[in-house]
Design goal:
A hairpin with a 3-residue loop joins strand 1 (29-34) and strand 2. A six-stranded antiparallel β-sheet has the order 1-2-4-5-6-3, with helices on one face. The protein contains two helices and six strands, in the order H-E-E-H-E-E-E-E. The protein is α+β, with helices and mostly antiparallel strands. The two termini are 22 Å apart. It has a single domain (11-113, 121-151), classed as Thiol Ester Dehydrase, Chain A (Roll).
Amino acid sequence: MTAETPTTADIDLIQRIIPHRYPFLLVDKVRDIVPFKSAVGIKNVTMNEPHFQGHFPGVPIMPGVTIIEAMAQAAAVMVGVSADLADKDFLVYFMNIEKAKFRRKVGPGDVLELHVTVTRGKPGGKVWKFSGRAEVEGELACEAEFTAMMDLPAEE
């Protein structure tokens, strides 16, 4: 982390940190980044997303697992920004998802705010645990705790 560490990641920086691409890039922006502590991801939900064709026809609802994945992507971007991992082939793998609860349907036109907080992890560490809350207009849509392994290629 340096004095120049950004507090916001736009889509260009997000794509330089995590490898996800359409149709599985589920975060459009990450803001309010407090290095190695917390961040807020933004996911603009649109009808053009492929899961709405089958989940459910005529009643489009964003699958809960994709909401949790969006929270995890926001968390990975926060760690990536904090550790200056842009362009470094950074990969993240789920290890555990706990206490997942869904409180509100999410659909086209909603803007998900993905509030993620580090509950365990340290700079240079491989295993991180996060607490996440997904909200739409201040209303809780989903909450979960999740653990991930951060994987960087070995330095040459």
